[in-house]
Amino acid sequence: MMTRLTPDLIEGVPDDKLDLDSRLLKATGKTVKGIALEAADLPPDTDLSRFSASVVPITSGQGIISGFSDSVNAIVSRLDMRSAVTEGTDVLGFSQGVDAGSDIIMMADDRKFVAYNTRERKYTDNSWGTAKGYAVALKNAAGGLEGKQVLVVGAGYVGTWAVQFLRDMGADVSVTDIIYQKAVRLTEYGAKPIRDVAKAIEDHVLLLNAAPFIIPGELIAEGSIISSPGVPHYYDQLGRSKAQAIIHDPLEIGAAVMAVKSASYSIKEDE
């Protein structure tokens, strides 16, 4: 099940008040688009302007999150894709996206957020996109992960994907979770489970925090690089002063990776 965003978390996304590209360039040397292209295994000069997307507001479950569709629309537009929010919601909105000839349809309910490629009939979901985007961001911020020790905090959907991506990048991955058995299950992907969450954090300088867990500053090691998709997101002044970089946004990195990965299905079919 997805962590449900609240309007206040994403209010700065449409107008890019977070200035995310500037912050990412400082921490990783790449923009959101650059991270998304790397995550989708596409060259950095890939032209995405030929792709169009429709963002469909969904009313099922707890209903539409105010500002969510406009935020996703802005994120996709910043990738140089043509994007629009459909007038209709739910199935009507999906049909409007198809009728408009959109290459990608973005939509989310309480349980799933997907970018569906209408040409190739494939989709990418937010757990995959978030984990891949934040793993790529951590790799760039750390100057590569080959042979380095990385801790994944949280063994849910995003954490499970993150373990696999970080291992593929050559990292020596440990995982911790307040429910220890969830961490143990990720041994099948080559991760080392650690029972003591606090000690695990203290002992690592490279972390991917995929849990709804606020890490107290006293646990953060000096010079840490933290790639932190987890919501709620908060780091106290002590933690911020000790960390070399804390990479976080409420929505953009994961959504951008989803859209670009979805587009990549068509790009690879055309090659």
What's the arrangement of secondary structure elements?
Layout (H helix, E strand, L loop, with lengths): L6 H4 L9 H9 L3 H8 L12 E5 L11 H10 L4 E4 L4 H10 L4 E5 L4 E5 L4 E4 H16 L7 E5 L3 H12 L3 E5 L3 H6 L6 E3 L2 H6 L3 E4 L15 E3 L9 H6 L2 E3 L4 H19 L1
Parallel strand pairs: 1-2, 1-3, 6-7, 6-9, 7-8, 9-10, 10-11
Antiparallel strand pairs: 3-4, 4-5
Describe the structure.
- This protein has 271 residues and is α/β, with parallel strands linked by helices.
- It has two domains: 139 residues, Rossmann fold, CATH 3.40.50.12150; 119 residues, Rossmann fold (3-Layer(aba) Sandwich).
- 39% of the residues lie in helices and 17% in strands.
- It contains eleven helices and eleven strands.
- α3 crosses α11 and α6 packs across α7.
- The protein is globular.
- The model has no long low-confidence stretch (mean pLDDT 91).
Short key terms for the protein model shown above:
single chain; 271 residues; alpha/beta; Rossmann fold; 6-stranded parallel sheet; 11 helices; 11 strands
